[in-house]
Specification:
434 Repressor (Amino-terminal Domain); 9 helices; 69% helix
Length: 128
């Protein structure tokens, strides 16, 4: 699954194998071998790829279909229309993007709790 995901992510960014290799400071033949399944990346390279493509290592390896932390949050709040609507507003805020990246380590109930807290703060600030 990793070869397919890497090729897909690279294509989504409109990069050639050579361009990706240059950005990551590895050889283009290494990228080609990753994409054909002839070679597996080491842990450090997996981490660099995940950071570059803004996805989890689990997504890269095919262990998860949730590509971005924002998708995980959307999944966690989908059964609560009020939180889902609020999330759609929040997801575009630059000041909260770091928080969203950290959610991959949280359970859905914890994600909901955080979104509720942010909503309560926003509601309180809106009333002042």
């Amino acid at each position: 699954m990793f070869p397919k995901r890497l090729k897909e992510l690279r294509g989504d960014k409109g990069l050639s194998q050579r361009e990706l290799a240059k950005l990551l400071n590895i050889s283009s033949s290494t990228i080609a071998m990753y994409e054909t399944g002839q070679r597996d990346p080491d842990t450090e390279t997996l981490q660099r790829l995940a950071e570059f493509f803004d996805c989890s290592i689990d997504y890269l390896l095919g262990k998860s279909n949730i590509r971005e932390p924002a998708d995980e949050i959307a999944e966690a709040v989908k059964d609560d229309p009020e939180l889902a609507d609020f999330w759609n507003v929040l997801r575009e805020r630059e000041d909260l993007k770091l928080l969203f990246k950290q959610t991959k380590k949280l359970e859905p109930r914890e994600i909901k709790q955080i979104i509720r807290i942010i909503k309560a703060i926003e509601d309180e600030e809106g009333n002042t």
